[in-house]
Amino acid sequence: MTAARRGNLVTLALLAPSLLSAILLLVIPILIVIAFSFAEQDTYGGAKFGFTLTSYRELFQSIYLPIFVNSLQLAAVSTLVCLLVGYPIAYFIALRAGRYAGILLALLLIPFWIDFIVRMSAWMVLLGRNGTINSALLGLGFIEQPIRMIGTYPAVLVGMLYAFLPTTVLPIHAALNGLDRRLLEAADDLGATPLQSFWRVTFPLSLPGVMAAILFVFVPAMGVYAIPVLLGGGKSIILGNLIVQLFLDFRNIPLGAAVSVVLLAISSVIIVCYMRVLRSVEEARA
Amino acid sequence: MKNWRTLFTSVSLIAFASGASAAELNIYAWSGEVPQEIVDDFAKETGITVTFDTYDSNETMMAKLSAGASGYDLIEPSQYTVQVLAKQGLLKELDHTKIPNLGNLGAPFREVSFDPGQKWSVPYIWGTTGFAYNEDCVKTPPTSWKALWDPQYEGRIYMLDNMLAAYIAGLQVNGFKAGTTNAEEIEKATQSLIEQKKVLGGYNSTNFGDLVASGEACIVQGWNGSIAQVMATNPNVKYVIPDEGGSMWIDGFAIPASAKNVEEAYKFIDYIMRPEVAAKAADLSKSATVIDEAKALLPKEVAENAAIYPPEDKLMKADFILDVGDATKLYQDGWTKVKTAQ
């Protein structure tokens, strides 16, 4: 056995556990979902394996299109909101917080050890008609009547912001943290105003982080399920809710599987685009 | 001699008890309908280890059953669900000799249209679909589904997040019967439900009782049991079976074809049909019992509660939803349109 071949075998042996679990827990389930999306459906919720495009044809009917539009729109708006709030936080932690940076990062992450649904229920308590925010505002005399927050679009956005803030802050923080401070000093020496040095030095260098943040928010945001139901009153459903509705309420496993496959395809396209853009950014810098 | 016999009996009892402790039962029932206390009592009496899960729509339960081995031994479907599950071959035919207490059923529940001869299911409780309001917010008592379209309660009206239940209101507000299979009527109801979204706070079929009790909602569509539960602590909540009819339902127990612990399932069905157990279950869940003798054991405030036992004339007008067959697709497409409308 040659050394190279032995090396390959060792690599394979070391990779085996993760490769096996990836195949078992990721590849096979996805293949099952894909197989179901081509299955046939009967009125009473049985799925017969076969090859039919019925589900995909049905999916591109007009009644499902608004859900795709809703989902893309919610994901885009949530991503924008997360960036607008998350960037300053990441900037502050990376460049201004000094020795408190570690503590601030920990504070950002600790709440996420609590179960997601519990945290969303906490928001229902905060935003409720007799909730903490309304009681405080009423008590301070700022409002006469409680404000309606649960069951509105802004409440959904607040939930999305809360859920995805860490995934926005962390990659941007990572990019800013690695920033060579001498570049900022140089900009300063050459007479750039703080705003100019931000736009022409800091921001371009943080772009890979920003793009990672966009990816980490946009892709999962299209599939969220609990936030529109708990904070939005279930009035505006998105792809995640459609999948649940098709599987559980309508017992239409093939159509539910087809929606999942399309969602997977959209996510994959976005990830491929991201990788292309990232490469061109890096090439431009080199 | 007598002592010996006692000793022998107790030894065999211990042996029996330790053997029985291996027995299991997995129950899947409507949330709020089978009280945890009843489950615990049963487990204590029989030594059977009970796992107890709940659902808030028949469809969710059916989805789990039709997806294959669900692991459940006992389910609690509503009337039309019994029909669908039986047609799919997902239920076990009941052996009446294993349910000695079957004879305790009240007369109206011995012969039911959706399951002639009690072949697949045994009724457990019954109730109605209507709406509840909070007097703090709704000053003139509403009597019609139209109250759930009233713009003065904008943002504080909630509908059940359940397709067939939402369509009861959508159809009846237009003067049609709930559970219709007429495409035009379903389409009209869909339009009404879409129009209603402007005034809705949301859809909810899990804690609608809390919503109206806390004042987050003024009016909620609901099933009477959950409403009667919050009425017990908040007298400002009132339950209404609307003039248009509302609906009546019967939830019963059935054994899935895939059940592994069939004997234990029969034991539970028979247990919950004992008058004193049925009475306790009805009292705790604030639902109407199907066992006549149990009704006599109920405290007055439950037995005479109009939200639980509505007057006969109301019941005569209520619709009884049966399997809608191929019209299911019409309802589903309509419901998707309702849910996606902005």
UniProtKB/TrEMBL annotation, chain A:
Keywords assigned: Cell membrane, Membrane, Transmembrane, Transmembrane helix, Transport
Transmembrane segments: 63-85, 97-114, 120-143, 155-177, 197-218, 225-247, 253-275
Organism: Shinella granuli
Source organism, top-level taxon: Bacteria
Major site of localization recorded for this protein: membrane
PANTHER family per the UniProt record, alphabetical: INNER MEMBRANE ABC TRANSPORTER PERMEASE PROTEIN YDCU-RELATED (PTHR42929:SF1), INNER MEMBRANE ABC TRANSPORTER PERMEASE PROTEIN YDCU-RELATED-RELATED (PTHR42929)
Native organism taxonomy: Bacteria, Pseudomonadati, Pseudomonadota, Alphaproteobacteria, Hyphomicrobiales
Domain ABC transmembrane type-1 residue range list: 68-274
Protein name in the entry: Spermidine/putrescine transport system permease protein
Family membership noted in the UniProt record: Belongs to the binding-protein-dependent transport system permease family. CysTW subfamily.
InterPro entries assigned: MetI-like, MetI-like_sf
TrEMBL record, chain B:
GO CC, alphabetical: periplasmic space
Pfam family, one: SBP_bac_8
GO molecular function, one term: polyamine binding
UniProt key word Transport: yes
GO BP annotations, alphabetical order: polyamine transport
Residues binding spermidine: 80
Alphabetized UniProt keyword annotations: Periplasm, Signal, Transport
Keyword hit for Signal: yes
PANTHER family: SPERMIDINE/PUTRESCINE-BINDING PERIPLASMIC PROTEIN, SPERMIDINE_PUTRESCINE-BINDING PERIPLASMIC PROTEIN
Function: Required for the activity of the bacterial periplasmic transport system of putrescine.
Protein name (Swiss-Prot/TrEMBL): Putrescine-binding periplasmic protein
Protein source organism: Shinella granuli
